[in-house]
Amino acid sequence: MNELRIADVTKSYGRGPGAAVLDDLSLTVAGGELVAVLGPSGCGKTTLLRIVAGFLRPDSGTVGIGGRTVAGPGVHVPPERRSVGIVAQEGALFPHLSVARNVAFGLTGAARAERRVRTEEMLELVGLGGYGDRMPHELSGGQQQRVALARALAPRPALVLLDEPFNALDSGLRNGVRADVAAALRATGATALLVTHDQQEALSIADRVAVMRSGKVVQYGTPQEVYRHPADAWVAGFVGDAVLLPGTVEGPGKTTAATALGPVPLAVGAAGATDATGATANGGAAGSGSAAGSGSAAGSGSAAGAGKAAGDGRSGTVVLRPEQLKLSPADSTAVRGTVAGVHFYGHDAMVAVAVKGVEGTVGVRLAGPVAVRPGDETGILVTGEAAFHPEPS
Amino acid sequence: MKNPGPPASRPAPRTGSGTRPAGASASAGRVRAVGSRPPAVLLVPAVVAALLVLLPLGYLGVRALERGAGYAWEIVADRGTVELLGRSLGLAAAVVAASLVLGVSLAWLTVRTALPGARAWGVLATLPLAVPSYVAAFAWVSAAPALSGFAGAALALTLACFPYVYLPTAAALRGIDPAQEEAARSLGAGSLRTFLRVTLPQLRPAAAGGGLLVALYVLSDFGAVSIMRYDTFTRAIHASYRASFDRTPAAVLSCVLVVMTVLLVTAENRTRGRAGHARTGRGASRPAPRLPLGRLRAPALAWCAAVAAAAVAFPVATLGYWLAVGNSATWDLERLLSASWSTLAVAAAGAAITTALALPVGVIAARYRGRTARLLEESAYAGHAVPGITVALALVFFSVRYVYPLYQQLPLLLAAYTVLFLPLAVGAVRSAVLQAPPVLEDVARSLGRSPLQVLREVTVPLAAPGVATGAALTFVVIMKELPATLLLRPTGMDTLAARLWDETTVAAYAAAAPYAVMLILIASVPAYLLGRHRP
Lengths: 393, 535
Prior knowledge:
heterodimer, A: 393 residues, alpha+beta, Rossmann fold, CATH 2.40.50.140, 2 domains, 5-stranded antiparallel beta sheet, B: 535 residues, MetI-like fold, 22 helices, globular
């Protein structure tokens, strides 16, 4: 299959410490998988994409596509011979060519009839059959983006790279185009790497998510793993709203942590697994146990306090999601707080609660109607399990 | 997120190391990365073009030092030389300033305001390209002899040169996304402040490029200053070449002139903004709304009319007068037609070769920011300031010495045109390529195209309108070129410019007029098309 294997890639602009954009980065994408590289702007994800595409050469390390080394010591396969499709921001259709000729652009060497069939097939795939005679400027942004995908997929590339492809679309359109693109990618079985800074996008369409920070992959796992068991507090906050509480491990089997919200059960093995933060993805130890999660060690470095199991009395950060918290009548629980603010979003609402012993406020996500108002006393219940990150010692 | 800020997209190979923020890579699509080298398909022809330009310069150096460095230094340090320097630079400064005022104001009026007949004024503003500076000078001096000297030279050259500022500025104005100006207005900036803070800075590369061409044109102009009897470097070089057997002073003075150009090009390069030029939005751009002029309508119209009258109507009227004064006996129709034909053929061939050679250099200048790219672009520009007479002398010397069969043959003349007008074509190609987003080339590469195929199938078609503009401009300037044509034309070949000069030097104004009129008529066609053309 068309596996993408990035091994120990380093890239820096200029010299000196801090100039490194990619820092000994490794990442493996199994054939047919859609992997999202998620990171804040400036983390090096676009540089990574350009190295895979062949527009940049890595300073060291290797890139292999489908078992063929395309970049490495003494090897540099030019972009046109890598069989890598690109979907750029804003589509980047050739403005001087019709939609059909855009899609057929990569179909060199094929007979004319075959080209036409393939072009129409690709346009059908992205739901734009019959649009071949239009010019790019006659299409909406979402349509342009889908044509760009059809163009990238037409030559049956080994790998498709998507560079923040939904950025320029307005949010109403974005979800639809996103789903269409993901479906088209799956339908063709293409291996795909999507670069984005939008966590919702990464979590919703990717098979696996690689979270990048400062030129490294800090966590690599399924969307569920990354969300439920973030490798560290930064990842927790980056991939979604998080409630971070200082806590201390206690209890038999070291399965609970004492926090300001009372004892919180820790995920099975979480204390051990998250201890080796960099390799969270290994074996899907965090519980969701997906087969795809194994054998693709992503993280290097960043293994805060790796090795030692979290002992009894070990302190650290407990990570909960706002939807794991529930409000209860003020007198029914041991943990109480004061409602500091209510933010209503329609499909749900976020209630900020000030709790004694917690800095700032604790976010609670409510699915139903909001019965509390700022200033009310309320109780808080914790459901489910938390991730735990021991303090580095 | 997509903020093409100047510092981010500038991989500054020489101004800094390690200062480039990691985030810069996000905008790396705009410009090729620091280390990347232009592919051989671009590099090889670009180097050939640069060598062709640098050859005459090399000759100048050799020739200037033939009688020893001490002798050369004596000529440079001579009081007369210093004085010439001041006169040349003063004239160039005056003409550039005046051309910027004329070019930018007319561009703004014709593109962005509700000026009545804006399109027609746009065409009129490009027509002076068809009037050779020596014809303009002749028209003014024959009507008002008191004008000769600095004022006359500045006037004639400004009216001949300002389209070099007008054309790129008008094109840039059309290319600016009106959304940017609307954003500025919404932030509380008035229309004047918006123009000064948002629009004008974006016009700077275009206007500065045009201004540079004007400055180079003035420094190397020979016809107008000769007719106006204003001594500049070129006139002194010509005089010293004609006057004595010792050609070393001519070579030394030419060297000084070349050094001045190199300084000028370097200065312009350093101040050039590094901001992205491609429009960031998607889809077709809306045309900008035209600003109503209100009470300023009459003055604006008067301004356009005055410029058109001085730059176009006046020379034409003067020529008409001389035509009327002449009689059929002074007309030689057969000779006129044969001169027209050879002018057309030579100019078309010259423009084709020059544009072909400018293509690789322009693409490299637009897409690559390394030392090599800079060097190639600057050497292409250097040729323009070498006065036509010096390029001609260099090629005469070179051919006599190394390729005698070419002496007094057509290829040599075409080579001279290429050396002289490569900057014009390179500038046009460069700005045309800058209009095409580089990401399209990346996509084409990923779809299996080699760099050469990308150039042919994507870059060139997208840049074609701008490149065609450059080719048309080159055609016009070659038609008007005088000194190199005089020296290098094959024996027996007459061009319109050469015939015009021959008749003018013997004060046969009436006999010269038909050639001047024909020259203007032929040159008007591409100039007219340029004015109508909307990139």
